[in-house]
Write the structure tokens for this entry.
Amino acid sequence: MSHLDTYKKALAAGREIDCYNNKIIFCERNSFMIGLTDDRVLWCDCILPLYEEGDHDLPNRIKQYVRQLANTDDIVSVYGALMTIHGYILTSAFYGKPFEIDFSDCIDIARKTIQRNEEAFKNYQGNKFSSYIGNPYDLVAEMVGLNKPVPQKARPVKKKTTLTNSKRKK
């Protein structure tokens, strides 16, 4: 069954939100996270084709689901909400925007949820993030502006000794 067929089946069963909260997982062999939806697959294989088929209410439902998931204490659902936003940003950058969704309020909601559940995110014991070195907090905090990326210190460049430099020293 194709990803699009799986999505349509969830939609028909009234379980469309499960396509965003990682209860129904869309991924491929080369997806970064195992056991979590790959946002590129969700957007390119499901959302964009559905919209092109004429489901023009889809952007409204997506925002509704993201807002709802961002406001839950379920770590995997909050991550799913943020990755849906991430997928929208990347898909828009690479393929253009077939529609507009303003997720700014959803990001604010997610930020508050993450702050409220910081310890739970940092101490998550499930296996959903097993392919990531670190904890879910590290992943989501930066997405909502809680952690700024740590600037990497530039290492001093060692001057290479070349044949020309060697001769000059003598």
In short: The helical segments are 3-12, 39-52, 58-70, 75-95, 104-116, 118-122, 136-143, 163-169. The first helix runs from residue 3 to 12. Confidence is low (pLDDT under 50) at residues 150-155.
